[in-house]
């Protein structure tokens, strides 16, 4: 079976925070942020807004573009590290969309690599599991885990949701190998680098008032939550510019392609300097690099489908175009996929 990318959509929160706004809460300025990162604005979910609702909005737009009824969706993959329910939010998205035809829905947690993993998982489910219409959603609200007093990290992140509908096709009818939507991929992780980027659980508190010291109740956790994002920016930067070109080159080789046959380079939008460094390594001119960092910052698992959606709707990415895409981030995780729109 082949698979095709047949629709995309995205949604961002209304609240816009500029670099100047941030300079009122931490010691920073527009020039430093834009020169070092390329970021000028980001959208942030306010306290009362829901990330799940944003994901539903993006998914609806992808279904509309694909002209596919929600009832035809048989798998929803929600790629997120910031679910609004610890047990996962994909089933709630499935319900809100009205996917009723015995669908499966689950979450994938892989930080900023989540969407690439979701795309590859969709293709595997189609090829090996007989699924037909798979919604891959990337959505994150890292602003909820940002330390707003840490100028080294709080300037980077924004919130968003993006979605792509991947459809199974019989090879002999609508999809021969020339048209297949996913040529090749390359995925990795390295838990050894977790110290450079993480948001671990806060130290468990125990309730010593209820249990006497040493009693069973005294030893039980009281409940938990996560710490703010801890990041060593320099190490993450070095990691990204080292592994991403390698991964894309491997995926291109598997696909029997070279850098010059790519129409677009669409990387996880983390930092303009990372995008530029990877493009230089792959000898791709800047005109072939998709970037919307200036408007949204790093939106984690949402950044690739958000940028893809904008590029498709503006007519930049056209049917038949080949795109090298790569995600990288916490875990550490990274991976690339060579896709065709
Ligand atoms: N405004 C002004 N000055 C700042 C700011 C700021 N916002 N942040 C740091 N500085 C200062 C530092 O204190 C330092 O000052 P000093 O020289 O007096 O000590 C100086 O600027 C340089 O700081 P560096 O941290 O060395 O700056 P760098 O050039 O490395 O840029 C950045 C920092 C932008 C964070 C960069 O390292 C980066 O983008 N790294 C990648 C991060 C990333 O992509 N993370 C997300 C991964 S995705 C995921 O999975 C969540």
> Overall 3D geometry?
globular
- Helical coverage, percent range: 25-40%
Q: Which band does the percent of strand residues land in? A: 15-25%
> How would a crystallographer describe the biggest sheet?
5 strands, mixed
The sequence of SSEs as H and E is EEHHEHEHEHEEEEHEHEHHHEE
CA(first)-CA(last) distance = 17 Å
Could you tell me the radius of gyration in angstroms? 20 Å
Quick check: average pLDDT?
93
Count of helical regions: 10
- Residue stretches low in confidence (pLDDT < 50, at least 5 long) are none
Provide the list of bound ligands, each named once. Answer: acetyl coenzyme *A
The overall strand count is 13
- What structural category characterises the helix and strand content? alpha/beta
Output the strand order for the largest sheet. 1-7-6-4-5
Enzyme class: transferase
Family: Belongs to the thiolase-like superfamily. FabH family.
Organism: Penstemon smallii
GO molecular function, one term: beta-ketoacyl-acyl-carrier-protein synthase III activity
């Amino acid at each position: 079976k082949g698979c095709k990318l047949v629709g995309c959509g995205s949604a961002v929160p209304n609240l816009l925070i500029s670099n100047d706004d941030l300079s009122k809460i931490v010691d920073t300025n527009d020039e430093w942020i834009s020169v070092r990162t390329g970021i000028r604005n980001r959208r942030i979910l306010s306290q009362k807004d829901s990330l799940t609702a944003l994901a539903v909005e993006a998914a609806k737009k992808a279904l509309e573009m694909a002209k596919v009824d929600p009832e035809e969706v048989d798998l929803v993959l929600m790629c997120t590290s910031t679910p609004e329910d610890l047990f996962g939010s994909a089933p709630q998205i499935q319900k809100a969309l009205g996917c009723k035809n015995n669908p499966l829905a689950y979450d994938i947690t892989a930080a900023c690599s989540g969407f690439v993993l979701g795309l590859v998982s969709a293709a595997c489910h189609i090829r090996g599991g007989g699924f037909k219409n798979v919604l891959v959603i990337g959505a994150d609200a890292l602003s909820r885990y940002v330390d707003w007093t840490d100028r080294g990290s709080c300037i980077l992140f924004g919130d968003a949701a993006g979605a792509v509908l991947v459809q199974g096709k019989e090879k002999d009818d609508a999809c021969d190998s020339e048209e297949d939507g996913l040529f090749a991929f390359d995925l990795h992780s390295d838990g050894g680098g977790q110290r450079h980027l993480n948001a671990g659980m806060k130290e468990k508190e125990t309730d010593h008032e209820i249990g006497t010291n040493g009693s069973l109740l005294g030893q039980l956790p009281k409940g938990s939550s996560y710490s703010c994002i801890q990041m060593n920016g320099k190490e993450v930067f070095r990691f990204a510019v080292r592994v991403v070109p390698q991964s894309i080159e491997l995926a291109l080789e598997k696909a029997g392609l070279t850098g010059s046959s790519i129409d677009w380079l669409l990387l996880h939008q983390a930092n303009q300097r990372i995008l530029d460094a990877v493009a230089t390594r792959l000898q791709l001119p800047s005109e072939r690099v998709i970037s919307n960092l200036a408007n949204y910052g790093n939106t984690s698992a949402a950044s690739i489908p958000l940028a893809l959606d904008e590029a498709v709707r503006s007519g930049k990415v056209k049917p038949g175009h080949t795109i090298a895409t790569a995600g990288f981030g916490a875990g550490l995780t990274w991976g690339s996929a060579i896709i065709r729109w």
